[in-house]
Amino acid sequence: MALSYRFGDFRLDPATRELSRGDAPVSVPPRAFDCIVYLLEHRERAVGRDELIAAVWGRTETGDGTLGQTILAARRALDDTGKEQHAIRTVFRFGYHWVAPVDAVENGPIENAPVTGAPIENASAEPPMRTAEPSHDAPLFEVTSVARAKTAMRGRWPILVAIAAIAVAVLAFVAIERMRAPHASDASSGAQAKGAIALVLPVVVNAGSGYDWVRLGLMDLIGARLRAAGIPVVPSDNVVALTGHAAGEREMTPARLAETTGATLVVEPRADSVDGRWRVTLRTTLGRDPPLTAAGESADVLQAARTAADELARELGFAPTATTQGDDDPLALANLSQQIEAAMLSDRLDAARALIASATPAQREQPELRLRAAQIAYQAGDFDEAEAGFDAVANAASAEQDPVLHARAVTNLGVIAAIRDDPALARRRFDTAIAILQRQRASDPLGKALMGRANINGLENRYDAALRDFAEARVAFESTGNLLALAVLDSNLAAMDQHRFRYAEAAPAFARAAQRFATFGVNAAELNALSGAAESRLALLEPDAALAMEPRLRELIERVADPARKRGGELTRSEILIANGRLQEAADAIDAVGRDAAAADDRAAIVQTHMAAARLADARGDARIAAREADAALQRATVADDARERSRTFRERVRALLDAGDIAAAREAEDALSSFAEHDGSAPARFYAHLASADAAAASGDVSAGSLYAQALADADDLRIPLDIREAANADAAWLVANGDLAGASAAAERVSGWAARDYGCALVQLRVQRAIGDENLWRGALAKALALAGERAIPAALADRATASPAASATSK
Q1: CA-based nearest residue to 229, from 262, 258, 267
Q2: DSSP per-residue letters across 350-409
Q3: Residues forming beta bridges with residue 47, ordered by sequence position
Q4: Spatial separation of the C-alpha atoms in residues 464 and 605, rounded to whole Å
Q5: Would you say the C-alpha torsion 190, 196, 200, 206 has a positive or negative sign?
Q6: Rg, the chain, Cα only
Q7: Is residue 26 exposed (0-12), middle (13-18) or buried (19+ Cβ within 10 Å)?
């Protein structure tokens, strides 16, 4: 039972993420809310800073500044102060302790919902006796902030729409100088003629404390100056991702960086502070023999970097852009913006906020810094604050005064509208931004706006329009060398293919995206893409190919901090294991996810866990548990869940009830599926409704079952999904065998013969028909194939022993 908490005049409900005072809701930033919940749930003791950071942010490197600001926001929401500390007490040099008296109250049960707090029933029970021995074969997101995206459904499409939406914002770190550079098409043509595509490494800094921002800030500034001179430069966020792998992974050498990004020139910067002056030195470590060296000196490190970058541009044969001098230098604000961007690139949001706070009041009112502040709020998950900030920037920087900055703000507003499930508003915002950016020929921001609109088009089934937007976005990203954005784009194309049931196209596209995310070390995005690839392979009846991905999925699940994403990965693993007959491993995974999802009150994961448990019970031949688990999933399912999976689960419940002999309950479930299919209107829902109706008719001896199975087969042919074709062919073949139509049964079996060598279900269809035909050699050959694929699944006795049953009896066996 989920709990809510009462303290003083406040009531907090973790499940609905609501804090109220009396009858009035209280606004609280997401991270602050999470801190309150964690401290409440551990109120029996003091919680250390590191523990709280790890629990709320999912990592340990978040600074104390961020935590302090978040605790301050939490106290404000609770009408607490650092002086009074009547709710959250600071424990000196340790952390925080919840001290206010609390009443924990059980929330009422969800109507018609099954109990989910206990593990899935009998999921870990011993498997039934089997003919075959178990198989022992064990073959094999979004930049960093994209890892925060939560998944509400099993389908890859909604997941990756969220990833792309966040990437639109996160990959939008573009400095002022970069925006004022020549158009990408012009720069590229000139640079390619001279053979230079540059990659600037993070800066080696030799200075005292307080200059850690120089490492990334100067890197981006140097790249911006080179780009302004007409040299294509690999985006800084790509370089940060590639050079920021965890310790122990293969080092990204200059040669490997160049190979990965397509760069032809690698620049290594160094900044030395000596006697109050800075010397910035740039050296080409790859691409020029002998290497080129350029340097700049100044009391201002940013000016020294500009001088060095301009000198290197000249050495490469390019003309640097002019820089105005004096107090009215338009790049004065860019100095501070550069430092903020460096902090954001390294995910140090506390440092970024501190830099904004250090600005003068006049600087903080500038649209560029206001955009930075909104991006920080977005990256921290405070969408309300982010939306207000982006809206203020869009109003302050009009389309006439600063069109690119205005369009960037509008694009981010479109992202927030998409996340809040307002596609009409999101589309209007993306349309506005795209129109502006096309006139300005600003490639990278244009690509992100196009990708945002492409996702909206795809969700609304406007596939041609989505593909046009994706194609234009690809050209834009390729022109700037933004490989991270290209990886997200590939993931979204794959998700759209999967949304359209084009699994053959989706699987390799997901795999390519996963490989690119792996190159960049973006574990969360790789986990999503690899899960999509595995699920597509299962739909294509290629369980062995999905199993080859399982070890890597397991590694990624361990590395990802987000609990919801971990649950999704484990559920994909469980489906892979079931499809390959590794039932006990699947049971262990399902039990663990079921407990975790129930504790977190993750409705979507609870639904998916029951669906997986129903398939596991079916694979073990336990119809009673299969029916119960399918019912538990359907009771909690909503329109937010994938319609095809819901329809498939409905039909599994009908079949399980029929196998258990509960005809009346099966008829009720069949009627419920028919109503759902009529309301949903999708082709998969209609298919599974026809198939369930045929199952019910066959169980009653109704001759109409034949025509209903024929209709289901026609539906499956239209869908062209191998898994659905197998389900229809298996049921139809059993009916035809039972009615003595061996020619028709052979024709049904032939539909899945191409998958029988790798898919157990298809091998059983072949075995059933060969058993009925009576050719012992063909039957033994089919049995050998089924045994090789069975794993821990039991071959039905009537199919495994020719002497135990008649053909009619074997036809009705599972």
Answers
A1: 267
A2: HHHHHHHHHS-HHHHTSHHHHHHHHHHHHHTT-HHHHHHHHHHHHHHS-TTT-HHHHHHH
A3: 96
A4: 32
A5: negative
A6: 30
A7: middle
Phi then psi for 314, rounded to 5 degrees? -65, -40
Q: Give yes or no for a contact between 222 and 199, defined as CB atoms under 8 angstroms apart.
A: no
Q: Which residue has 């902090």 as its token pair? A: 343
For residue 265, give the amino acid letter: L
The model's pLDDT over 693-705, given as tens digits with 9 standing for 90+, comes to 999 999 988 889 9
Rounded Cα distance between 355 and 259, Å, is: 35
- The alpha carbon of 144 is separated from its chain's Cα centroid by a whole number of angstroms, namely 12
Q: Using CA atoms, how far apart are residues 455 and 450, in angstroms rounded to an integer? A: 9
Give the C-alpha distances (Å, rounded to integers) separating 713 from 55, 460, 498, 721, 733.
50, 28, 21, 11, 11
Phi and psi torsions of 454, nearest 5°: -60, -40
714 token code pair: 């026609």
Q: Closest by alpha carbon to 512, among 500, 526, 523, 499?
A: 526
- pTM, 2 dp: 0.64
The structure tokens listed for 455 are 């996702």
Distance between CA atoms of residues 379 and 373, nearest Å? 10
Nearest to 77 by CA among 88, 66, 67: 88
Look at residue 199 and give its three-state secondary structure.
Answer: strand
pLDDT along the chain (814 residues), means of 10: 82 86 84 88 85 70 66 85 80 83 72 34 35 25 27 36 37 30 38 65 84 77 86 81 52 81 91 91 92 92 90 90 49 63 64 76 80 83 86 88 91 88 90 93 89 89 90 86 83 89 92 84 84 95 96 91 85 97 96 93 92 96 96 88 91 95 94 92 92 94 90 89 95 93 93 94 95 91 94 91 48 41
Question: Residue 572: CB partners within 8 Å, gap ≥ 6?
Answer: 531, 534, 535, 553
- 384-to-145, 372, 379, 550 alpha-carbon distances in Å: 17, 15, 12, 38
Amino acid at 141: F
Q: How far is CA 342 from the centre of its chain?
A: 25
Q: Six-digit token pair at 461?
A: 């089934």
Residue labelled with tokens 């369980």:
543
* Nearest-5° Cα angle at 368, 359 to 228: 115
CB 650 within 8 A of CB 692: yes
Q: Phi-psi region for residue 22, left (φ > 0), alpha (ψ -120 to 50) or beta?
A: left
> What's the rounded Cα separation, in Å, for the pair 205 and 526?
32
- How far is it, in rounded angstroms, from Cα 160 to Cα 529? 8
